[in-house]
Amino acid sequence: MDVDYTKYTLSELRDCRENIDENAYPERVKIIEEQIAIRIQNGGFKKSSKKMTKKESETIQWAWGNLFLSLVFAFLAISGISKGSIGNAAKMGNYNLTEDPIGFWVVILILVLLSGHRLYKSIKGFGGKGI
Fold this sequence. Notes:
It contains four helices and two strands; from the N terminus they run αααββα. With about 130 residues, it is mostly helical. The protein has a two-stranded antiparallel sheet.
């Protein structure tokens, strides 16, 4: 039975090296040591020849979009808090901290919740793949 050590992580390879019977499996010891050297050269990461699928690519694109929206909503909330008012250029639906504090804080709360939700979706979309 041949073992494919190319799929093992560095820590798994080191564990195998410590626990293998050198007299019974000298060829495996050599393969394990070669794989350990490769992992150390690559910084502990094995090179993956796997290409990203279309679905994974779309997921990453959505994750970046969600991260961007999260930052926009956070910026709007911070900007509103610092200025004391939130509104639009047409002056319709403006919420001022002094004139309508409840409406102002409701809008801030909505922006913070949207920002948090989009940040969560972004992190979930990256799924540990890193940014």
